[in-house]
Amino acid sequence: MVFDAVLVRPLINAMLLLYKFLGQETIVAVAVITLLLRLATTPLQLKQQKGVKRQQELKPRLDELQKKYKDDKNQLAQEQMKLYREAGINPMAGCLPTLIQLPLMIGLYQAIIRVLASTPLQLLALPKDIYHWIPSLSTLVPLKSQFLWLDLAIPDPLFILPVLVVISSWYYQKLLTPPAMDPQAAAMNKQMMLMMPLMTGFFTLTYASGLGVYFLITNLVGILQYFLFRSHYAPVAAAAPSAKGQTSPERTRKRAPSKG
Amino acid sequence: MSVRRITINRPLASQAPSGRAWVRRVWLVAIVATVLLAGCAGGGLRHESWPGMISVEGTLYAACLGHIEAINAETGKVYWSFPDAEGEKQQPFYAAPVLAPEVGDHGMLIVAGFTDRTVYGLALGASPAERPDEVWRFEDAGGQYVGSGVVAEDMFLIGNGDGRVYALNIADGSQVWEFATRDRVWATPVVVDDTVYIASLDHHLYAVDLKTGAEQWQLEVEGAIAGTPVYAQGDLWVGDFASKLYQVDLDTQSVSWTFEADNWLWATPLVSGRVLYVADMGGNVYAFDTETRALVWDAPASVGDVVRGRPALAEDGSLLYVPGYEKGQITAIDTATGTVQQSWGMTLPNPGRLPGDLVLDAERLYTMPVLVAECVQAFDPASGELLWSSPEVSE
């Protein structure tokens, strides 16, 4: 399979190499490879956030157009597209970084699950993923899976990791969510802020703890990135908009990063 | 009653679905993603290992995932299941059952559960069709049982996922001793005279006193050892995940010879006379003369599939049957030349996968496929023709 050959296998072998050279600690290997991938995709994320921010900046002018052409919907649509063109914004361009990051995330998830093979059948699939031309990679298997109270190959029996993942995921989601343009978007934001942490929490609860570690590190690095590159991000969704689709300007201003 | 047709012409910014529709869509995506990801785990009793089986005088004792079954080897008819349908909650059995023929009136069958971490002693009845009685349980292990055990003197020895090997009294299941390694023990312990040899995923081979469980010596190898070693010509032969086959001299307690294969060695080697057969996970099958250590064939035979299960040798020694894991096909290799016997072939439209060891008796070759409904399949060793399946699955 092309996806395996291009992404999953290189990640598996990179993780084994990191494991080998970083003291044979699985959690360190997972943490470092997650960190490296996050760093590699940082330019894409910043570009995406810039796009979101610029769309937010256009909002007053979009509101004006909506008032002006409230009786001529076709004209309104044309004027909106013209405005986007003039501002150099492609409304769909924000999807591209996400589309690039998503396979990376799925590939890393697959790699972690395969490397942490804990049962005989899981381990049986691993030899064909290992580059046998790299000396002694096979001698590292099976990876040491104990870390503190965790066995990284099985779910956390104490539920500490799922809780940490849910909290960090919720906070990261909150930081990333831009102010809603209308009540519908606000409803969606609210659902996403609830759903994403619950989903990652569910996966952490169900699958190998190594995957939970990956979620946690991804969230923590994301939060760190937000504070390091705050000026690139749109103001966060501080409050739900009113029924008329207005966000609270006071709260938005208060949380908006200072310019310059 | 009148019907009004309303045409809505929304601007682009307002063409999004209503709030409720958004919520429905978001949850739908979440549910689909969850189902897709959770799909990897499967449902019900999942295959986490491979089932094992033994053949004893016309009866097969098979670990059929949720049950241990006694099966008529000629017809495939199931005599009994343990636990029975109304019995205890089902849990997977993978380790091949072990028969202790001298215990009790008609022998004892010892089986080990995977997830319940329990070893059961079952007293067999006068006939194979008679349901056995559970005599004892051993529930003190901390991990899963993957490899089967072995009977030695009045003890049953078995490795566990908690890294220990347990020696149990066959009569009552009480623990005689335990020996701890630093990783999981998936291989069956090998007993030679008064010594137990234990292969562990911690890269070590341990020699332990049979009576006390006291360590005599240990030997470190390059990779993890998951396969069961084999004793031949006074030496122990064992393969590891570093793709190495080691000949261990038990007198000097050291490696006397090493061979590097192309891939991991997990399948238990097979010895016949002076020849040792071993298959790696790249599908290469090697034959060695155990005395000269020379390769018997000019080149390794290739079955073109991952090989995990132990091969079987035809009664007359002319064919070596090798189970391919992913394609689920058995390949017959001419032992004289090392070439694949093209005229031999399994007759199965949907063979499943074959991670487990092959079992051969005088008349039939048996497999225990996974990912299909059949638990045991019997083939004609001469032609590869399917003789029966248990349970019988209609097409």
Could you tell me the strand content of chain A as a percent range?
Answer: under 5%
Largest interface: pair, residues per side:
A-B, 40 and 51 residues
Under CATH at level 1, the class of the domain at 47-188 in chain B stands as Mainly Beta
Poorly predicted segments of chain B: 1-23, 38-44
Query: Which fold name fills CATH's third level, the topology of the domain at 47-188 in chain B?
Result: Lipocalin
Number of strands of chain A: 2
Euclidean distance between termini CA atoms of chain A: 49 Å
State Rg of chain B. Answer: 25 Å
Structural class of the helix and strand makeup of chain A?
Answer: mainly alpha
Question: What pattern of helices and strands is seen along the backbone of chain A?
Answer: HHHHHHHEEHHHH
pLDDT < 50 stretches of chain A: 238-260
Report how far apart the termini of chain B are: 55 Å
The class by helix and strand makeup of chain B works out as: mainly beta
- Spatial extent as radius of gyration of chain A: 22 Å
Q: Tell me, what's the shape of chain B?
A: globular
Account of the protein in words:
The complex is a heterodimer of chains A (260) and B (395). Chain A is mainly alpha-helical. Chain A has one domain (2-255). In chain A, 65% of the residues lie in helices and 2% in strands. Chain A contains eleven helices and two strands. Chain A has helices spanning 2-21, 26-40, 42-57, 59-68, 73-87, 95-115, 120-124, 160-176, 183-206, 209-228, 249-255, and strands at residues 146-147, 150-151. The longest helix of chain A has 24 residues, at 183-206. Residues 238-260 of chain A have low confidence and may be disordered. With 395 residues, chain B is mainly beta. Chain B has a domain at 47-188: Lipocalin (Beta Barrel), CATH 2.40.128.630. In chain B, the strands form eight sheets. A four-stranded antiparallel sheet of chain B has the order 1-2-3-4, with no helix packed on it. A four-stranded antiparallel sheet of chain B has the order 5-6-7-8, with no helix packed on it. Chain B has a four-stranded antiparallel sheet with strand order 9-10-11-12, with no helix packed on it. In chain B, a hairpin with an 8-residue loop joins strand 30 and strand 31 (376-379). The chains are: A mainly alpha (260), B mainly beta (395).
